[in-house]
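RETRY 2/3 - previous attempt timed out on the joint model. Re-submitting the same 974-residue input unchanged.
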Amino acid sequence: MSADPARVPVPRTTGAESPAEVVAAVRRRAGPPAAWWGMVVLIASEATLFGAFIGTYYYLRFETPVWPPLGIPEPKVVVPLILIGCLALTAPPMLLAYRAAAAGRLRAARGYLVLALVVQAGYFAFEVHDFRDQLHTYGITRNAYSSIYYTLLGADHAHVLLGILFTAWLLAKLAGGLTTYRVNAAQAIAWYWVAVILLTFAVIGTLLSARV
Amino acid sequence: MSALSLRSLAVLQWFGLLAGAGAWAGQLVVGFGVTQAECGAAGSRFGIGNDVWQAALLGAGVLAILVAEAAAVTVFLRTRGTSYEEEPPVGRMRFFAIAAMAANLIFLMIVVLSGTASIANVTCRQA
Amino acid sequence: MAVVVPPRPAGAEYVERLERQWASRPGVLGWLTTTDHKRIGLLYFWTTLAFFGAGGVEALIMRTQLSTPNEHIVSPGTYDELFSMHGITMIFFFIIPMTTGAFGNYLIPLMIGARDMAFPRMNALSYWIFLASGLFIYTSLFMGMAPNAGWFDYVPLASRQFDPGRNIDFYCLGIIFNSIASTLTAGQFIVTIFKSRAPGMSLNRMPLFCFAFLAASLGLLFALPVLSANTIFLFLDRNIGTHFFDPARGGSPLLWQHLFWIFGHPEVYILIVPAFGIATSIIPAFTQRRLTAFPLVAIAELLVVFIGFGVWAHHMFATGMPTISMVFFAAATAMVVIPSTIQVFAWCMSMVTGSARFRTPLLFIAGFIFMFVTGGLTGIMFLAIPFDQQVTDTYFIIAHFHYIIFGAAVFPIFGGMYFWFPKVTGRMYFERPGQISFWIIFVGTNLLFFPMHIVGLLGMTRRVYTYPGGLGWTAFNFAETVGGFITLVGILLLFGNLVVSYFRAPRADQDPWHGPTLEWTTTSPPPEYNFAVVPTVTSPYPNWDDADRERDRAKLARGVLVLDEGHEQPAVTPVDGRFAEIVEMPNESPWPVVLAISLALVFTMLLIEKYVIAGLMGILCLITLLAWSWKEPQE
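RETRY 2/3 succeeded.
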């Protein structure tokens, strides 16, 4: 039933030399590359970290009758939701950038990446500004609520920053042409962003649940 | 019984392997969370008591695990005549079916034990 | 006169090309920049042995202190550092890196028919980070500020208020630093096991050793982040002034315990599951029969770790939580023993029905089964909440986990050292001293750990630096100390035997045991490229499939699937192992060492509260990563 490995026409992917060879090799291979699986594993690890933070949030909440504690304002709803909506909109361009790279359409790939990068960077700048503003209202050392609030939110922002660095790196790499390594990287990084966006939804949802 | 396609058999195999594990994990996390919410300083704020939650989780958990076990047994029966060492996909499916049949029984025991004990004990009394 | 030239073996020209492609850089620089999984495995091996020695010295000092009542060999403060460092060392710097880093790295690619791990440079990084984190934490010992609140470091004892020095900061940062290495290794193994198997090796044809390491790796992947979160909270509480664990401001000390044990319990299964994998490799070799109930043993290895994530609060039965919370963990604790029992049954059945030859490796496995069952029986007792509340924090617990850790992790490690010694070194070992070393260690460890059950039930608590006479504890403690030194003698004999064997014993051929798995199909030691052709695999016991090995010889003669156009290896689909692509692997690289040093600088700056410089060192790390990623594998 399964083919004799000696007879299966299998592409030499990383060894592909020209962009045309890369495109053909990527199309013929069976299933995602090791790089993508590596990213899945990284995401699993980071998601567990956030799971621990979110679990901590609820654990502390179940122990505290008044939440948020007196003197701390409830988290805002509108602005965070708009912001995360903007971030979510960068997922399609990241995925399209991968698709374009895999098909050999380098200029389209670079274009999608630039678009995504601008929105991602703008989101991050706004969030940093907002974070600092909030710290002036109440600091991280006020109580357990503030401790977990800023740690959870800060961790999320750190992962967004990492994603921005990934996007910028990918743009720089693709400026130099197409290799299978770069196509693999585009796939991995696109899925990193999908994961970070979903994680950010989970984080914002957790923080906003204080209003319930 | 009508013939099952290879694809359906594969779906049943993965469901049989993973659903029981997921059911136990869910019953543990939600069940434990309910007890913490109920007995923590903040107290239960939704009006549904611990026992109702635990009974619902017990029922849902047992049901899910039994369905998973049925799926695993189905794959096992449909792959009769193949050894678990043979070529994939059929050999692999038999392998995971055997594994799942044993695993689901273990998960069933844990869910039944913990579910009944969380109802039988006095709510929030310290251990 | 005509010179007769002997005919070259079939396929010799392909082998020569592979030798040239895969030749490693010579000298010290070659070792510093290596990405070869075998070299990295050896680096881990020697480094973990050094930490084993350190942990052993710590143990023997403690045992000497406790040999008689009211001793004053060490002060109470030093004793606190000793038991904390002993636990930290043995768990994070001996067992985990020895099983995963040494055995796993060396053997997994060989067992799955691959030429290297999926991410060779990242593999090297794991080692250098592990070494750096070990040096980081041991610096604390030499500066007299080692962690001193136990390996589980409970708050509020570990808070700034009660432990004001840098001891616990060393703990937090050292643990996080070390966990980066283990997380990278875990991810490496998972991707390698799924993607780098030989085509034809579907999951149902994968050796049980690989199932065990897959289970341990999945465990590490999901457990370590929880520990990291916990230690981040502690570091922030101690250094920034947050209130995660401070009840006065809404925090909870129990939060530390929950998060710690959500990591800590899976961790102890992670310690023993690779050893199960070693046992399931040794038993078939010395019984020459397939292991009983193969699919059940495979799933049992995964189930032990998976269910192990759901038992954590059995470490907290005495904390005053409600019974209805505790029953979830009591139930899971009761059932987690079943997968282990399935494995014990399969091992014993295999040994009884096969014609077992009790050479040294199998002796250690027999000892392992005895000690594991003993430790497992006391383990089940803890699920009874009232019983646990009596014995928790006594020597009864210490007895239990040392039977498990020494018996179920260290014994298989020793057995594995003997078993694979011929493969790694190309020499046999001397059998008689090997067997004697086993018996001395077996007697020593039982004398060391068994009396702890009794003295624990008599009321001796953990972590006491001395005790008064007249309690009935003295004779037992003295016996335990004697047992400890007997164990030391046995271990010295074991390693002495291996060292002498390395220089004096007869050469080993490629398959001295007629072992079941692929590592026995290649030379001793294996060449850099492991296999000249991609092996044909149709069962989990490939070395016993003579037809497949014959096909490999035919493939080599014709140059089929030699993959010598570069530094190449195959990649497959994750479940069914269908041939997917041929990938180029990277050669030596200096960046892993550089990155590990940069990370060490980050953690050192954090330790001495120079946070801005730590940030700059972090940027240095990013620049190193950039340099690393600039050279792609095919270049």
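Chain B touches chain C at residues 21, 24-25, 28, 31-32, 35-36, 38-39, 50, 54, 84-89, 91-92, 94-96, 98-100, 102-103, 106, 109-110, 113-114, 117-118, 121-127 (CB under 8 Å). Closing ticket.
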